[in-house]
Amino acid sequence: MITSDWSGVPEDVAAVRAEIEHEIAGSTLLTAYAETVARAPDVVAHTWLDGGEWRSLTYRQAHDQVRDAALGLTAVGLRPGEFAVIWSRNRSEATVADYAVMHARAVPVFIYPTIAAEQAADLIAHCEATVAIVEPEFVPVLDSIRAKLPQLRALVILGDSDGAAGAAGQADETRLLDWPELLGLGRAEADRDPAAFERSWRQVTPDSLATLIYTSGTTGRSKGVMITHRNVRYEQAASERVNPHEAMVPEDGVSVLVSYLPMAHVTGRTLDHWAAMTHPSTLAYCPNQLHIFQIAAQVHPTFMMGIPRVWEKLHAALRATLPDVSPAAVRALPGAVRQAVLTKIGLDRCKIAATGSAPIDPEIVEFFRALGVPLSEGWGMSELSNAATFAAPEAARSGAVGQAFPGVEVRLADEGEGLVRGPIVMAGYYKDPELTMATIDAKGWLHTGDIGQFDADGFLKIIDRKKELIITSGGKNISPALVEYELQRHPLIGQGCAIGDRRNYVTALLVLDPETTPAWARGRGIEFGSLADLAGHPDVRAEVERGVEEANSHLARPERVRRFALLPAEWTTQSGELTPSMKRRRRVIVDRYAKEIEELYG
Length: 602
Fold this sequence. Notes:
There is one protein chain. The protein is α/β, with parallel strands linked by helices. The strands form seven sheets. A five-stranded parallel β-sheet has the order 4-3-5-6-7, sandwiched between helices. A five-stranded mixed β-sheet has the order 12-13-14-15-16. Strands 2-1-11-10 form a four-stranded mixed β-sheet, sandwiched between helices. α1 (about 10-25) packs across α10, α2 crosses α11 and α3 packs across α8. The longest helix is centred in the N-terminal third of the chain and has 17 residues, at about 60-75. The chain starts with 10 loop residues before the first helix and ends with a helix.
């Protein structure tokens, strides 16, 4: 644990912090979960589609599986303090596995489903995981790197493992078993020693690690962020004072969330797994992110979190169905029309909606608010146990990410870098004390690397990443995020990357929106077979040029884009230009399109 000099904390902040710390004293996610199960044993905890039919588990049923899985993991050799990796999409078994690892006094580490084999090998080896809990489709990938992971003692295969266990490498001493076998082992242990489960998890303390979150690595190697139960419980208690859980509870008394965010991301764990341990909630699983609103239309969530790209895509889809998507026009629609639109996309019961991780067009935020979706922005990072700022819907301001959570300090260094101090700050980077000391100073301030500014009322606006600022050859500091934000306001420009570091002017690499552009082209009788065809069509390029000109009209002269390249394919996590959390990997983009960039400056 980091010891810090907490001197200089304002009295009002210190008082609130002390209240919250008293409120959560001695508690862990596991004590909170036990209380929730006792309070709401018959509430549906998990629901998912299976062959077109909805299946479910109540809190009591899920808890029984957690008990069996935890005792089963102990039986196959998972020891207190060790790490267990979970490589899975969003599904009930993955949630149970997460809880079970914690109850076995070990530390769960999720791996992004889209991660490359070598990256997975690096993460598993770095934390020296002794158990891997894996979906069948990822078993061959794990097999390809098994030689690099001699510490693995057990491999548990989720779901239908027919053939998967046989395909898993048998050459080493790793124990292979499927999910039902693991649960069966645990049930036998529970029958043999009914007190074993309680005796185990009660030894977990607030300072125990709740998880290790590996950052998705926009600029370099992933880092293992250590988050304790105390970190999470403080984050939850502070968040509750900004947005009480009751605000998300509908008339029937149970909040509903679509679980689609990757569990390797701190926001996914915070909103889905951890929140459901402290408040009765129904998680509706969506393993494929492309089907978010198809699932939402069936379960009608009361809370919806989406990165800007999710809201941008939904906005683009609704643009085709509404005659005018300006906030004023949407507000003027009859209430029945707005309600019909919300019902169609499943957001008719949404009490709170949130976005974060990247800038979002204020007009899109205002559109959804006008439609009846109370969308707010927040800001945080893995190193802050998720969010450090947020605004209640009634206090939200477009373009700002809210105010600091109660008891948390946020200030700006001289160069505008956001600094955060408080109980949400991570315990450090795993196996990297030097980087930890470089990130958290002696007074406990975590240096976020984000550049921001405050308005007169203390609302924070994030401008860019410190390491990503463009410094032109003329010495001008330019925010690529600002330039990209203005470019992406045009409906045909789906993605953009501003270029110009050590150059004498700014250029941009642009990618067409794969949903809006085809519809635009068909409406003009343009024939095409792919996005690449559209990127090469003169009418499309002319429209994109108009979009660039419009963006430039909102930018200062040094920020304006002089030239651009329209690329033939969308950037994805699979192709490597985006991180698993959908952030741009600028270094990858710049390296991959070096030829196109040089032509822009030729």
